Amino acid sequence: MMKKFLTSILIVGLAAQSCTKVNENVYDKYAGDAFYNTAAGADNALATVYGKITGTWGSNYAGRDNCWYDLNSFASDEQVIPHRNTGDWQLDFAQLYTRTELPTLGIINNTWNWIYSSIYSANLAITQLTAAKADPSKIAEAKVMRAWLYYLAIDDFGDVPFYTDNNIDVSKIPQEKRATIYDFIITELKANVDLLSETRGGAYYGRFNKWAGYMVLAKVYLNAGVYTGTPHWEEALAAANKVAAGGYSLHSGEVNAGSPLGNQYYELFGDVCPNDETILAEYITQNVVSGNIYGIRSLNSPNGVALIGFSGWNGTVIPSEFYDKFNDKDIRKKQFLVGTQAGGVTYTRDVSSLISPGAAPDEGIRDVKFFPVKPDASGASNDFPIYRYADVLLIQAECNVRLGNATAAAPFLNQVRKRAGLTDIAAPTLDNIYDERGFELNMEGHRRQDMIRFGKYLLPHGFVPAAPATRLVFAIPTAALNANSTLKQNPGY
């Protein structure tokens, strides 16, 4: 179980803290090598990296706030937290949404620090496992995780510091071109994904198996044109086909009276992500391993009490432009709350202001895609789906359209649409695929990347004016520039 896998870190850490005597035996590196050569030792080395993925406030991939998820989600058109005219909520989220953030923004700095802290842990795990001549699949798992982290880094920041050996001073880490690191990522993934376990679920729930590795490869190839100027649609399609060969299928969208949102579809965002569709999940259990705040953060206080027994934070809203794209027959529209709600709350469709003076308390459409499971006032236990089979189908559809074969794309796209209760599209266009990705994958951290790849990111929408091309990457945080004077800031910041 992932819970046991992650808590092994805590056990080792507590044991280390409890050693207060100075006359203990000293063990040399061979004892360490022997340990990391065992299955338990190898898993412990990997757990230090996986522990960074779940993380805590300001230091994680998703689930909590003020880090990677928020940086990439609030810079898109799918969600925003307005400053409230009651004085609630800092301006950070609205600044990301309106693209007025500065390099000193805390969420930017948190994301940078989280990525590089995680890369450090991955480098360390690779060193430990390699020196111990550990199972090649475990070394490969650490290398795939590091490649995934560098993919996140170049996606957000462009040209970034690059190192694979921790024996280097932070001030001396060289800044490499985005395309150079892209080549490294591709090379590492191609060399290692076939060494990964093919096991799905069980001990590999929440871990990079072979199919998750190919999913990362598909994602990197899918965005190759953004990173290098040269698209690789055929390679992205081939990698997605590899993932599809893992035996995944779409989870049912049938009616489920026991679900708060009425369909089995929403089980994908509940306590445990179903293995039929989930390729890689982030394990979360409130007050044990991180916590998922996304439903609670959106609900107004009395609405939260009425629905889940705890006050909501009255934060995240869904821009009406994004909401209006959904068909009323689409089961995915059930995630949104607008109008009169339980607890005597009425959410308005539109928001009058994001920054000054800010929105009134009940302004804005709310989202409960991650309907809080076993919550308390600080979060919930919903696991987070990093990658799902629905995304694979949409990658297959997109690549076929981009390669000039819309007819071949249709079956992939229409599987996703059929589950949602929508009609088929015989010859999908790129706009059809772009919209469907928004309908299916919203609130899951993919939207900013999709907007950039489809050429939509710089366009005006709602409160957001047209943006210059320099905004296609985030600023390198001021703190990082201060720590390493050789780094060059991205243009426009």
UniProtKB/TrEMBL annotation:
<dbReference type="InterPro" id="IPR011990">
    <property type="entry name" value="TPR-like_helical_dom_sf"/>
</dbReference>
<comment type="similarity">
    <text>Belongs to the SusD family.</text>
</comment>
<dbReference type="GO" id="GO:0009279">
    <property type="term" value="C:cell outer membrane"/>
</dbReference>
<protein>
    <submittedName>
        <fullName>RagB/SusD family nutrient uptake outer membrane protein</fullName>
    </submittedName>
</protein>
<feature type="domain" description="SusD-like N-terminal">
    <location>
        <begin position="90"/>
        <end position="222"/>
    </location>
</feature>
<dbReference type="Pfam" id="PF07980">
    <property type="entry name" value="SusD_RagB"/>
</dbReference>
<keyword id="KW-0732">Signal</keyword>
<dbReference type="InterPro" id="IPR033985">
    <property type="entry name" value="SusD-like_N"/>
</dbReference>
<dbReference type="Pfam" id="PF14322">
    <property type="entry name" value="SusD-like_3"/>
</dbReference>
<feature type="domain" description="RagB/SusD">
    <location>
        <begin position="260"/>
        <end position="457"/>
    </location>
</feature>
<dbReference type="InterPro" id="IPR012944">
    <property type="entry name" value="SusD_RagB_dom"/>
</dbReference>
<keyword id="KW-0472">Membrane</keyword>
<keyword id="KW-0998">Cell outer membrane</keyword>
